[in-house]
Amino acid sequence: MASFRFPFSFSQPSVPKPPRSTSSSFRLSVSAVAVTVTVGGVAAIAASRNPWVFSSHRSSQLPWGSIALASPSSESNVVVEPKTGFSFPATIGGGSRRLLGVGLRKKSLLGLKNIDVYAFGMYADCDDVKKLVGEKYANLPASELRGNKAFVDDLMDADIKMTIRLQIVYGKLNIRSVRTAFKDSVGNRLKKFGGLLDNDDLLQSFTSLFKDEYKIPRNSTIDMTREPGHVLNVAIEGNQVGSVKSKLLCRSILDLYIGEEPFDKNAREDFLDNVASIAAVDNK
């Protein structure tokens, strides 16, 4: 899966990891004037007077996409999920939430093959993240922070504004399938974190937001945003369809993407790497 690091200036660059064997990746390690991008172990450098200039290449050296960010608040700049070619804005919410990871949700079809269901982008309010780190993890270096289970749990439990944006890839997907899939996956997480409590009504309040009347053709988007106060807002194609206030529900949904058994392990790793790098700005 694609991996990247957002434009923050560090006094000491992070040590690059070996390339992953299962997917291409790119990570942005930003200095004041240059961006180093790694895809399948191949690095390219885009130098500019503007530190918000990114570019990337596949391991074949063929360019597959580039973005130039005019300002941190711009929502017109994108990051591409490499397998599907689907793009995600680098920031949303007026620039308050930044894209920290992209991934791909696959599903087995009749046990015969995997289909690409949707690409997803994971956004977080960086100020909220740094506040959490400053309050509880100020003494941990970034290298330890990214692998700290307590920190990951706090990311899912804390009142941090985060958005999971789904972008539909599978053209035959309908809203009933989405509702059924969430009933299964979110239901399992509610049982995992809710213990012996009966959370059927909570699950129903969430899945009922995905009404049959909504159409989700290829390229359409579904946003699930944790707002302050642990309110989960759901929007389809930018139109809010409803909300549910529940810390347990927010935790259960985030666990699908950044928990210990995520839909895309590489995307989770990239997200946590980038969160740790953000925290390192105030933690170095």
TrEMBL record:
A GO molecular-function descriptor: intramolecular lyase activity
One GO-annotated biological process of the protein: fatty acid metabolic process
Q: Which Pfam families match?
A: Chalcone_2
**InterPro entries cross-referenced by the UniProt entry:** Chalcone_isomerase (IPR016087), Chalcone_isomerase_3-sand (IPR016088), Chalcone_isomerase_bundle_sf (IPR016089), Chalcone_isomerase_sf (IPR036298), FAP1 (IPR044228)
Identify one Gene Ontology CC term for this UniProt entry. chloroplast stroma
Q: Where is the Chalcone isomerase domain?
A: 98-271
Family the UniProt entry places it in = Belongs to the chalcone isomerase family.
Protein name per UniProt: Fatty-acid-binding protein 1
Species, as recorded: Raphanus sativus (Radish)
Question: Per UniProt, what is the name of the gene that codes for the protein in this document?
Answer: LOC108862620
